[in-house]
Amino acid sequence: QVQLAESGGGLVQAGGSLRLSCAASGRTFNTYRMGWFRQVPGKEREFVAAISWSDSRTSYADSVKGRFTISRDNAKKAVYLQMNSLKPEDTGVYYCALDPYGSMWVYWGQGTQVTVSS
Q: Which of 37, 44, 62, 79 lies in the 20 to 30 Å Cα band around 110?
């Protein structure tokens, strides 16, 4: 099993920044990619960003390109999401996820709340 623990959420004004962290523990030897998703009440969980564990290739949702940056630390088995120029529509619960084999997101964290006030 793999455990994911997010941290770094909070309340910030529009235009501000936050940095989310996610630490993976347990049976993490099979990690193809890690990523971030977010969800607001009444809506489906949506993809935000992902990073490949082997070569750090990144991908982003169009809505966050140029504002968010995903990065990783192999030694710590951690992934980060630097969020700049935050907008009220970025508000939601942010979840860290891990895809062990490149086929589907299997493991999920408990989520951390991000609230952006206007």
A: 62
SS3 (DSSP) at 69: strand
Q: Which of 87, 48, 45 is nearest to 65 (CA)?
A: 48
Helix and strand element counts for the chain (H, E): 0, 11
Q: Which ranges of the chain have pLDDT less than 50? A: none
| Cα separation, 70 vs 14, whole angstroms | 20
Question: Of 82, 83, 70, 76, which is closest to residue 34 (Cα–Cα)?
Answer: 70
- Which residue, among 31, 39, 38, 15, has the nearest Cα to 106 in the 3D structure? 31
| Lookup result for tokens 């770094």 | 8
